[in-house]
Amino acid sequence: MPLVQYNQTDDPEENGVYACRMKSDVSNLHIDRFLSWFDGQWYFMGSDQKYRGNVTGWIGPLQRRM
Predict the structure, then answer these.
(1) What is the rounded CA–CA span in Å between residue 55 and residue 3?
(2) 12 vs 26: CA distance, rounded Å
């Protein structure tokens, strides 16, 4: 299976759910978190609260229905 690369240069063009990479609050490591992209902003999943941190890479949009 081919390796999926994070996009590190652009913002998403489509609304949806994305696997996102960001710096950890407690260390120099990066963590992965699912966020929603909607109208040019990152949001926490299932919330109207914006994610205020810096997304350093993303993959998506992810398929939501099987």
Answers:
(1) 20
(2) 27
Residue 1 pLDDT level (bands cut at 50, 70, 90): confident
* Tens-place pLDDT, residues 4-41: 999 999 999 999 999 999 999 898 899 999 999 999 99
Is the link from the previous residue into 61 a cis peptide, with omega within 30 of 0?
yes
CA distance 22 to 56: 5
Q: Is the pTM of this model over 0.90?
A: no
Domain ranges (residues) in the chain: 1-66
The residues, ordered by sequence, that sit 6+ positions from 10 with a Cβ below 8 Å of its Cβ are: none
The helix (H) or strand (E) run that includes residue 46 is none
